[in-house]
Amino acid sequence: MTTKLLTALLLGTSILGSAGMAYAQDVTLNIESWRGDDLAIWKDKLIPAFEAKNPGIKVVFAPSAPTEYDAALGAKLAAGSAGDLITCRPFDKSLELYKKGNLADLSTLPGMENFSDVAKAAWQTDDGKASFCVPMASVIHGFIYNKDAFDQLGIKVPTTNEEFYAALDKIKADGTYIPMAMGTKDLWEAATMGYQNIGPNYWKGEEGRAALIKGEQKLTDPQWVEPYKELTKWKDYLGDGFEAQTYPDSQNLFTLGRAAIYPAGSWEIGLFNTQAQFKMGAFPPPVQKVGDTCYISDHTDIGMGLNAASKNADAAKTFLTWVASPDFATIYANALPGFFSLNNTPVKMEDPLAQEFVSWRDKCKSTIRSTYQILSRGTPNLENETWVESANVINGTDTPEAAAKKLQDGLDSWYKPAK
Amino acid sequence: MAAAPKRPFRWHIVVFLAPALLVYTAIMILPLAGTLQLSLFRNIDQAQVFVGLENFRRLFGDPNWSVNFWNALRNNVWFFIIHMLVQNPIGVLLAALLSSPRLRFSAFYRTAIFVPTILSFVIVGFAWKLILSPLWGVAPNLMDLVGLKSLFTPWLGKEQYALTALSLISVWQFVGIPMMLIYAALLSIPDEVIEAAECDGITGMSQFWKIKLPLILPSIGIISILTFVGNFNAFDLIYTAQGALAGPNYSTDILGTFLYRAFFGFQLQVGDPNMGAAIATMMFLIILGGVCVYLFLVQTRLRRYQF
Q1: Is B269's CB within 8 Å of A383's CB?
Q2: Which pLDDT tens digit goes with each residue over B261-283?
Q3: Which of A155, A328, A338, A391 has the most crowded CB, counting CB atoms within 10 A?
Q4: Same domain, A257 and A406
Q5: Domain containing residue B286: CATH number
Q6: Is residue B53 part of a domain?
Q7: Average pLDDT over residues B49-66
């Protein structure tokens, strides 16, 4: 009953929404999205730029609330009232839509050659043969630091583990600042900003991630346990009562200038720029020894696909090709610092912090979060368990080895890698 | 009676019962039957297939599910015990104090203590998270004032304290309900009974224990069963304060949050409505069992007094 009501409501809104355009001869494309925050950017920057180049195609950006997006989109697709262009969540959620035939195959779309395989992996079938969304943006992990604090204490930006802990020790000994702003209350901070942030340096990014999916490596192997051993050392540098410190607490601790280092994702840049009253810098996860190759988590987060039932498929493809172009990438990445274009053509960005983050792509190898592709389809869910275990390791509830064993046992219980 | 003339069928009974019966069936009985039915099916290749008790076999036989289930049940029992040991005695005590004729401003106290009950869980969860926050909370400062700073720990983040802390927050929120019910029961005790007791020389504390308490026992029974049902259906407070993963390390996971994760999924975990329905069925059976024990073993033995 509720789905019928919802469908009726959605149908109603889509009819009302399109009524205004009925006079124009132009083709109108509707974009489905959960990024309500980006409405102004689409309306004022992206859509005018596209329409100026492509007369005859009108584009409407119609976002819904993030928590309702998946359900609302599903209902609209089922009712045939969904927009022509669909903003894609990474991995399984979009893959499911593709398998149901809701998303069109875009493997041959002009412009797809602008993206690397890692960038496309989030919106491909498991065998990598078909791509169904154009990658739009990714977020990069690293550490944001308080530059004023570093200058005041005479600390150089650390590049190796040794320097990293030396810097933390120095901040702790001085006592003015909390060395590192992170809490374990919300669990995901420990996993995403901790484990997935520093981990790629140990499991060698894509190499380890692929081997894990193939079953050649186990989470109990040293390269997967080592990051947990590092996390146990972090405990001493976190603020008092970090066990009950939430994610917004950590953000505030850092932007109020009370903490020196913040294990970060690049999505923080926009917020931190407006809130922090001090100079900020960023450094990539430190490597084990001088000269080691560095790896960064450059996690694909948002893409755009074509509704397979769209009546304006040609116009929509023109739009997607534009989304795949460097033009789009430049506008998007500058409007949303911290959401980086996945385009192979380097994008010139104004924001210094964002520039710093994206510069790591040149010297480090990119990978995505190890738990996202394929490995989080079953019960127990590897991603969720990683949250719990990462927090356990920092809290001292579990040893790194015990945590790794729990995760691997859980994975083994349902995941049988293809031989 | 046998000689009485045959009466016409009394249609008005059916007509008067119908609205309540229809509404209750539509919003309670049908969804309940739907849940029970859903728990006997599994989604195999996009189709619901009848699998009998397979979901329950998995829930209890597969360690990936059973460990979480027993953990949630254990936590839930502890949650209930705290309510029974703290909330209800305090509720009775407050009601006894409020009903004392010498207490001034009793209307104010009554309202103040009852107000948290009508607050949203979201507000309660958020407010207490802030109060207990080791960074900006007032709890560490207040404890410092009385020289107990050393006793402060980040309770909500510690595995051994988090559940108890949350139970006490819930007690704080809901202590008004037993207070109100007992208060009403105490007021309904006729003055003659009290006067008779006073004539017999029973006053003060012994009057409470010997006269009033036996008279409010049925109300205490009702409160116990309400607490039981409420606690085993609880979800909101844990969800708002600790999130759906009920951290740290599932130490605050109760049946409600376990059901939520299974049914709706969380983050990358995809929801499994069939397993969720199996858990919901277990919750239903547990509550049903508890209520039956109360109805048949406890309530029948409670003596009621008619005045």
Answers
A1: yes
A2: 998 888 777 778 899 999 999 99
A3: A391
A4: yes
A5: 1.10.3720.10
A6: no
A7: 91
Q: How far is B162 from chain A (nearest CA, A)?
A: 10
Q: What is the pLDDT of residues B216-269, one digit of tens each?
A: 998 999 999 999 999 999 999 999 999 888 889 999 999 999 999 998 888 777
Q: In the predicted model, what is the mean pLDDT of residues A68-96?
A: 87
Do residues A199 and A279 lie in contact, with contact meaning Cβ atoms separated by under 8 Å? Answer: no
Residues A262, A385 within the same domain: yes
pLDDT above 60: residue A44: yes
Separation of CA A324 from chain center = 18
CB contacts, 8 Å: A376 with chain B: 268-269
Structural domain of residue A95, as residue ranges?
Answer: 2-136+301-348
Number of domains in chain B: 1
User: Which residue of chain B has the CA closest to A249?
Assistant: B135
* Residue A371: closest C-alpha in chain B: B268
- DSSP assignment of B250-281: TTT--HHHHHHHHHHEETTEEP-HHHHHHHHH
The model's pLDDT over A132-144, given as tens digits with 9 standing for 90+, comes to 999 999 999 999 9
**A285 and A204 fall within a common domain:** yes
More confident residue, A322 or A347: A322
List, for residues A166-187, the tens digit of each pLDDT value. 999 999 999 999 999 999 999 9
Q: Do A391 and B247 touch (CB under 8 A)?
A: yes
pLDDT top residue among A125 and B306 = A125
Distance to chain A for B247, nearest Cα, Å? 7
A128 belongs to a structural domain: yes
pLDDT at A24 over 70: no
Measure CB to CB from residue B156 to each of A188, A244, A395 and give the nearest one. A244
Has residue A363 been placed in a domain?
no
Q: Mark whether A294 and A305 lie in a shared domain.
A: no
* pLDDT computed for residue B2 by the predictor: 55
In a domain, residue A355? The reply is no
pLDDT recorded at residue A116: 86
Residue A260 shares a structural domain with residue A177: yes
**Chain B residues with CB within 8 Å of chain A CB:** 64-65, 129, 132-136, 153-159, 242-243, 245, 247-250, 261, 266-270, 272, 275
Q: Give the CATH number of the domain where residue A118 resides.
A: 3.40.190.10
Range of the domain at B171: 63-301
Percent of chain A with pLDDT over 90: 61
Give the count of domains, chain A.
2
